Amino acid sequence: MNRPAEDTAADDAAADGIRGSVHGTAPVPLSVLDLVTVGAGRTATDALRTGVALARLAESRGYHRYWVAEHHSMPGVASSSPAVILAHLAAHTERIRLGSGGVMLPNHAPLVIAEQFGTLEALAPGRVDLGLGRAPGTDGATAAALRRTGRVNEGADDFPQQLMELTRFLDDDFPDGHPYSRIHAVPGPVQATSPGGVQSPHRPPVWLLGSSGFSARLAGTLGLPFAFAHHFSAQNTVPALDLYRETFRPSEVLAEPYALIGVSALAADDEKEARRQVLAAALNMVRLRTGRPGLVPTPEEAEGYDFSPMEREFIDSWNANVVHGTADEVVAGLNDLQKRTGADELMLTANAHGGDVRVRSYELIADAYGLPTTATA
What we know:
By secondary structure, this protein is α/β, with parallel strands linked by helices. The protein has 15 helices and nine strands. An eight-stranded parallel β-barrel has the order 1-2-3-4-5-6-7-9, surrounded by eight helices. Helix 2 (44-60) links the parallel strand 1 (30-34) and strand 2 (65-68). It is globular, with a radius of gyration of 20 Å. The chain starts with a helix and ends in an 8-residue tail after the last helix. The model is unreliable at 1-8 (pLDDT under 50).
């Protein structure tokens, strides 16, 4: 008996890792967004080692996926090369999904991204996500240096066309007569069509990322999974998710909408320590937003900092959207946020000075939700 196409699409989505499994008392699957933050007095090596420890913890505790995001020219963020970091993490994990949250498509030729993520798929079959954004992940001058052009907005405006080109490289299905029809992303499907060729049945699922309505509408129209940056655009979360759901069209990828949201969340053993840690992270954001990017300051530096009234107002506004406190307080905040937004998945990012603090936060949240101590799937 043939099953309905939408049922098959839903099964395929689960098999490809788009839809995660719920563990413990969590309302939806939980995942990790690692910004690979570098604290004052620490090195990028320290931050990357924390990433390995965190990925292993996330895998053992039932977090569904682990993403890193592309940023440039920010001393406190060591994630300028997501594909390199993901390859490293693939060598230190076995099951957890690994992906970009995201790669900024306008910064790169689509063929390069297809090759990089085809390589990652070969290294970790069936475990790789390709999340794409259209922002530069940096300031305008750095974006111009990355793209070798002074027309920084050009790439963002061409995002739908770039996305189509990338998808065709991933699927190796440019039509006959297209200028790229004889160009192939390797590793990729072309290897299966070569004499004696055998190719993995998997290819990285494409996610669209956004902090406004543009990518929400595009993801809905194309029937793709959508990730929204609630952690720095909280006021747009509900409108963007509503738009995504309203414009969603079933596709070969998804029969129904699937949206995750990135959430700043930090749990500590006591509420006071959580407040100290998020204050330091907020001071880092103050400096970034005022053109003074640097390493994440220590809590002691943040406590001794003389905030101006305008800076204090920014801090209060920023931290209002950071779910922080004891593990029970964070769980209550995450449950409330999921209920308000209807998000299908919560991707938690813990911003703090020390790597040990960040790892401890994910451990406390896992304990509070009763996540497994050694996940098998």
